[in-house]
Design goal:
With 266 residues, the chain is an alpha/beta fold. The chain has a single domain, classed as Rossmann fold (3-Layer(aba) Sandwich), CATH 3.40.50.300. Helices cover 38% and strands 22% of the residues. The chain contains 9 helices and 10 strands. The strands form 2 sheets. The chain has a 6-stranded mixed β-sheet. The chain has a 4-stranded antiparallel β-sheet with strand order 2-1-4-5, with helices on one face.
């Protein structure tokens, strides 16, 4: 130990490194930032976008969203229709707190997402938002009910009654009798219903659907749209991204996005 100390004393670089480590150890550690409670605000819109833009820093820059304004009230069901490259997925990512705007403001249940750090954004996603994608994203080696229960595991929900809540969600979408099946034993429409049940656990304020009928045949698409209509009639707030006008026509509100600009239809 003494020999090592003498070696450090003779070597200026090692002496500076040792001094830096000592100062770092003595420096008071910052207190952890208190976690804010991100509960829903019943008097606020579920989503409020004010002049939102998103530009990607390529060369030349890509302006994916341009001055988007959108208000989603509780109980609204809105379709956003647009071709590939129109900006609809970018819009969904911003509303889903998976990306941040480069201009404007995005408020989710009254909370400005610009004020949140990454941990708080993750907490907001877990508590307030449910996601349904074109691909079902079910774990093949887990049963249907286990896939739905995992949603609460990832959010850190209460273990007590977890299976019962998952079964209730499956009953809500009409596939409770398949609870103990593996996903590979289900049709595409049934797998998408399981994915919707997973999104509904935790009673999200908003259901975000990204091309949810894109992998379904016409019969299963019709069945899925009927399920969405039932959820909307029950008070669910929904934002649905699609390129299919016939799917969009089933939503009470319809918007179109082209070249990053959003237009609402009367």
């Amino acid at each position: 130990m003494a020999a090592r100390a003498r070696s450090v004393a003779r070597d200026p670089e090692r002496r500076r490194a040792a001094l830096t480590r000592q100062r770092a150890a003595e420096r008071p550690r910052p207190r952890p930032r208190p976690r804010r409670e991100l509960a829903p605000h019943p008097d606020s819109p579920v989503v409020e976008l004010r002049n939102v833009s998103r530009t990607y820093g390529s060369e030349p820059p890509v302006r994916a969203l341009r001055g988007v304004d959108l208000v989603v009230q509780r109980g609204d069901a809105i379709a956003i229709v647009g071709p590939s490259g129109s900006g609809k997925s970018t819009l969904l990512n911003i509303v889903g707190c998976l990306d941040r705007p480069t201009g404007g403001r995005c408020l989710i249940d009254g909370t400005d997402v610009a004020s949140l750090d990454e941990d708080e954004l993750a907490a907001l996603r877990g508590r307030l938002l449910g996601f349904v994608f074109q691909t079902f994203n079910l774990l093949a080696h887990r049963t249907v009910i286990e896939n739905v229960m995992l949603s609460e595991v990832y959010r850190g929900g209460d273990r007590t009654g977890r299976r019962e809540r998952a079964l209730e969600a499956l009953e809500r979408v009409g596939v409770a009798e398949r609870a103990d099946f593996l996903p590979g034993k289900l049709s595409g429409g049934q797998q998408q219903r399981v994915a919707i049940a997973r999104a509904l656990t935790g009673a999200p304020s908003l259901l975000l659907c990204d091309e949810p009928t894109g992998n379904l045949d016409s019969a299963n698409t019709e069945s899925m749209l009927e399920l969405f209509e039932e959820l909307v009639a029950g008070g669910m707030t929904m934002l649905l991204i699609t390129h299919d006008d016939s799917v969009a026509a089933r939503m009470p509100r319809r918007t179109t996005i082209v070249d990053g600009r959003l237009t609402e239809h009367a």
